What we know:
Elements: H1 22-28, E1 37-41, E2 48-54, E3 58-59, E4 64-65, H2 71-74, H3 83-88, H4 97-102, H5 112-115, H6 120-123, E5 134-135, E6 148-149, H7 157-160
Parallel strand pairs: 2-5
Antiparallel strand pairs: 1-2, 2-6, 3-4
Amino acid sequence: MSQNDKPAVAPFWKKGLAALTTAEWEQLCDGCGRCCLVKLEDEDTERIYFTSVGCKLLDMQSCRCTHYVGRKRQVPECIKLTPQKVDEISWLPPSCAYRLVADGKDLMWWHPLISGSFETVHEAGISVRGRVVALESDVEPDDLQDYLVSWPMRIPKRAKQKL
């Protein structure tokens, strides 16, 4: 290594979830909105099923929470993700940056920290943009089973390959 060469600095997420600062933790979210889909649990099997219905606070265009800081006051069942909960929550999609980092994997090409753009998560088909048919405030709870979908637990082909 010459005098002018600096050693490469590893991306902050390589240090592991528990070592992230609050700002780094927040940056790790790719903004897909999949965790903001209403989920149903089978009481007998404890299996989680996704619906195509979004949380009442989901902005369907940006795929972000409209009241992120105060979301727990408005949606008490909203789960605040922590490094410990990443290991406990079975329904985190395989594309989730928190899941990937917890599993020792790198971020995908479409993640804003890699691509430099918040739009690539939508271009790759990872986000819920265009796939949320209603917000939970517009659907009767008894009708949620009519909106079951499996795509949130899959990674689209176009997301696996760089466009």
